[in-house]
Amino acid sequence: MDDELPYWVGMRIPILQPGNPELVPGALFLALDSLAGPFVPPQLAWWALLAVCLTGLCWVPFLRGDTKSVTRIERGTTKIADDGSRPVLT
């Protein structure tokens, strides 16, 4: 049992059979001894981490603005529920 590979990666793919115009569902499996081996070479791991961090930093302003909008809407709906008035959202 020492020769078994511990990681399996699978992907659904369409298969075209000769003489059949329709695609048949299929699967492609890859057996690996390490998840990092063929996908992330060690010298590129730091670049991948940097890319993930930069992507996260790009999302921060959007999420912050979106949170402010949701807070304003929540404040307005609370005021409507409390006293039945129509608040002015600014």
Report what the structure shows.
By secondary structure, the protein is of the alpha+beta class. The protein folds into 2 domains: 1-39, no CATH class; 41-90. The protein is 47% helix and 22% strand. The protein has one helix at 42-83; strands at 7-16, 23-32. The chain has a two-stranded antiparallel ribbon with strand order 1-2. A hairpin with a 6-residue loop joins β1 and β2. The radius of gyration is 26 Å and the shape is elongated. The protein starts with 6 loop residues before the first strand and ends in a 7-residue tail after the last helix. The model has no long low-confidence stretch (mean pLDDT 79).
Question: Would you kindly provide a brief summary of this structure?
Answer:
This protein has about 90 residues and is an alpha+beta fold. Helices cover about 45% and strands about 20% of the residues.
